Every structure is written in C-alpha cells, then in structure tokens.
Amino acid sequence: MSGSVKVADVVRIPVRPQGERPYDVVLGDGALGGLAEIVTGRTRAVLIHPVALRAVAARIVADLRAQADLEVHAVEVPDGEPAKRLAVAGECWDVLGRLGLTRDDVIIGLGGGTVTDLAGFVAASWLRGVDVVQVPTTVLGMVDAAVGGKTGIDVDAGKNLVGAFHQPLTVLCDLAMLATLPAVEVRAGLAEVVKTGFIADGAILDLLEDDPTGLAHLPELIERSIRVKADVVSGDPREAGRREVLNYGHTLGHAIEKVEHFSWRHGEAISVGMVFAAELSRLAVGLDETTVGRHRRLLTSIGLPVSYDADRWPALLDAMRVDKKSRGRRLRFIGLTARGETTIVDDPESSLLTAAYRSVAR
Ligand SMILES: NC(=O)c1ccc[n+]([C@@H]2O[C@H](COP(=O)([O-])OP(=O)(O)OC[C@H]3O[C@@H](n4cnc5c(N)ncnc54)[C@H](O)[C@@H]3O)[C@@H](O)[C@H]2O)c1
Ligand SMILES: O=C(O)C(=O)C[C@@H](O)[C@H](O)[C@H](O)COP(=O)(O)O
Ligand SMILES: [Zn+2]
Known about the structure:
Blueprint: E1 9-15, E2 23-29, H1 35-39, E3 44-50, H2 54-68, E4 71-77, H3 86-99, E5 106-111, H4 113-125, E6 131-136, H5 139-145, E7 150-155, E8 158-165, E9 170-174, H6 183-199, H7 203-210, H8 218-235, H9 250-259, H10 266-285, H11 289-302, H12 313-320, E10 332-338, E11 341-346, H13 350-358
Parallel strand pairs: 2-9, 3-4, 3-5, 5-6, 6-9
Antiparallel strand pairs: 1-2, 7-8, 10-11
Helix pairs in contact: 3-4, 4-5, 5-6, 5-8, 6-7, 6-8, 6-10, 6-11, 9-10, 9-12, 10-11, 10-13
The structure holds nicotinamide-adenine-dinucleotide, the ligand O=C(O)C(=O)C[C@@H](O)[C@H](O)[C@H](O)COP(=O)(O)O and zinc ion.
C-alpha cells in the first residue's frame, strides 16, 4: 500500500443512530486510503486482524506509522469464528493494558465479521468504551457486521451471547480488499444480502437472480444492503423494535451454528434459517408459496445450503431458547407476510415449528 494509496472513488452512506454519534460508511475502491486522516491526532492505534490478513495488516501498520505519526500495534487473532472467544478478547485486553491504551486512542478492526465483532467488543469494553474504526474485508462484513454497532463474542451457551452496542467512528469498505476473498466466503456473505432483499429491498433479489454468483453486480449489491442496514440501525440502534428485522433467518441459523460447534459459516447457517423462517411464515402468517419457493431457488442457485439434519431438531429447539428475541418462555421469530413485509411470529405453536422444520429437514 505504501506509495500506492489511491485517490478514493467512494460513496458515503450516512448512519445516524438516534441519540448516538453519527458516522458514515465509506464504500468504494480506495476507501482504506482515508484511514490515516481518521486516526491522525491520536497517540496510539491498535489494529486487530486475522491470520489471513497478516500481510495486509503489516502494510497498513507501516503506512499509518509513516503518514499519521502515531504508535501503531497489530494484534493477530485466529481466522473465522474462533476469534470470537473470551480468551481472544482477553489477549486483546492484555495487549491494550501493556500499551496503556487511553480513551483518546483508537482500535481498528480489519477483517471479516468475526474480527469486526471482536474488535468492536474489545473497544466497547476497554475503559468502558474507546473509539473503533471498522475496516471490513469480506462481503458479509461490509454489508452487515461492521455497520450498526452490534459487537460481541460467542460463549458455550450460544452465539453472540456476550456483547455490547458500540457504534464505530467510521466504517471503511474498500472493495479492493475483496480481491483475495475465497468464493465460498463471497457466497456466505451473499446470504445476508439475500436477507436484505427479502426483508426490504427487492431489487437485490432481481440482481442476484440475474447473476447468482453476485459478481456481476457486487458493488451495487453491497451498496444497497448497506443502505438498508444504515436506515434500520439509524431508527433503532439498540434493537428496541424495528432492528429485529435484521435477525430474519437467525433464530434457527444461530442454533445451527451452536449445534455445529461454530464450524459452519454464519451465512450458510442463516441460509437454512431463512428457508425455515419462510416456511414458518407460510404456516403462521400466510406467506405465499411462490415467495417461499423463491427463497429455496435463489439460495440454492447461489450455492448455499437450504436443509439440515432431521434428527437435530430437539437440540436446535433447545438452542433457540437463548435467542435474544425470546421473552420468558416465548420463542419469537421474524416472519414475512409478503416480500418486504416483516412481522413478529410470537410464540408459535410447537406443531407449526415442527412442520416448518420438517420442510427443511433432510
Ligand atoms: N455485528 C453484526 O451486526 C453482524 C452481522 C452479521 C454477521 N455477524 C458476524 O460475522 C461473522 C461472520 O463474518 P464473515 O462471514 O465475514 O466471516 P469471517 O470473519 O470468519 O471471515 C471469513 C474468512 O475469510 C478470511 N478473510 C477475511 N477477509 C479476507 C480477505 N479479504 N481475503 C482473504 N481472506 C479473508 C477470514 O480470516 C476468515 O477465515 C459471524 O460471527 C457473525 O455472527 C455480525
Ligand atoms: O445488526 C443486527 O441487528 C443483526 O441482527 C444482523 C445480523 O445479521 C447479525 O448476524 C447479528 O450479529 C445477529 O445478532 P444477534 O443479536 O442475534 O446476536
Ligand atoms: Zn447475520
């Protein structure tokens, strides 16, 4: 990156979370070129990154040291979901302690959703809150995880059960970062893009049906998805209501991740979860069969899973009880009455849940 920082060709998408500091998502080729200016004036920056991005992280550290005149330290964490463990957060806190990171220093999260969730949580908890700049490097991180301030880690009891709302200072989505992303990770990210299409922006579904690899329309798909997320989060930053729609497909999806000991990709798990949610919506709130079929067809054409083991239902049901949308003994799901029309399916009869699961079971 040294000597080759491009003049950014970017769009800025505003996030205006009610009652919290406003920020932008900067999206485009060269967006990362704005990082030095953002952190200039701080004394220390700590860059948290996964193993896979070691070389990129080293270039960013060198650039920041040269351009922004501050102490920069890198912390390498495991690739994938193992980054979101208490022990890894603890290692990050140890480093921050050794460096003496203060409230006017900054943490940078460079990586996929696992790293932006971890870095956000470390920033939210260190000194009860320091600034974090998110630099997502996966499709999923750009369209969803890095935007909106949901941060957290997994514990044995389940997915994302420990965390905090902590909005970033800014989010830099540099499309050039995606050049090295494996195809299987692009597909996993498209699951959240599909989610956004079903809950809000139908043009997304048309674009993906035109090219299920997502590649032909990737910048537009990413921008549209970010705009939906930015809008939802701006109106309900702490998930008091409407933000729950972003959890479409996640009640079963997170349960699959737990039952699989976090070995499935998040996007793959919520792909199955969305088909389940669509089937439950058909049974509970009258979603039409065509829209349910559209879920299966589109997700399959992208190369995402749409079924899961029949005999795991009791374990999944158990895991779903700790979902954050649950209230007391009531399970709550995000449902659809039509494409783009969301509703809450509150405490559905167990016969409906079983029937919906039967239609995704293999
Ligand atoms: N906070 C939120 O609002 C939110 C939203 C959606 C998902 N999430 C979380 O995001 C996580 C999933 O994120 P993900 O799908 O990005 O997975 P990930 O972070 O595990 O990244 C996928 C893999 O790609 C590697 N990688 C990342 N960028 C790369 C690049 N540019 N080139 C090559 N390899 C690269 C990573 O090291 C990892 O091995 C889950 O933990 C999920 O719960 C959070
Ligand atoms: O931003 C949100 O709100 C979401 O629910 C986005 C989801 O895609 C994401 O996976 C999120 O981490 C799930 O949050 P959780 O509260 O169900 O743990
Ligand atoms: Zn998700």
